[in-house]
Design brief:
This protein has 95 residues and is of the alpha+beta class. It has a domain of 49 residues. Helix content is 27%, strand content 31%. It has a 6-stranded antiparallel beta sheet, with helices on one face. The longest helix has 16 residues. It is globular. The mean pLDDT is 92.
């Protein structure tokens, strides 16, 4: 677990969103079991990615595992705003 967010926006095409997620800085692969888009900096040689994104019905789930996760979040939000104009971010608090 890390810092978790929901990022809400309206998208019509999952294929188009898939392409956008793959263009974000640090994208490495899609985790096969849960379909999470994984991001890591070149300095991260560990098992855990720096961040992971999962597509949801009304946007995406974002988990920042640390290191360069905040940078991935900034890049992702900038690209989403450029493409979808209106984006809402909420930090998930499980307490």
């Amino acid at each position: 677990m890390g810092f978790e967010y929901t990022i809400r926006f309206v998208y019509e095409s999952q294929d188009k969103l898939d392409k956008l997620l793959r263009q974000c800085e640090g994208f490495t692969d899609v985790e096969p079991m849960f379909g999470g888009y994984q991001y890591r900096s070149s300095e991260n040689q560990g098992i855990m990615p720096d961040a992971e994104v999962r597509i949801q019905d009304a946007g995406v789930y974002f988990c920042d595992y640390g290191a360069s996760g905040a940078r991935v979040l900034r890049d992702l939000v900038a690209q989403l705003l450029a493409e979808y104009n209106e984006v809402t971010i909420a930090k998930l608090d499980w307490e």
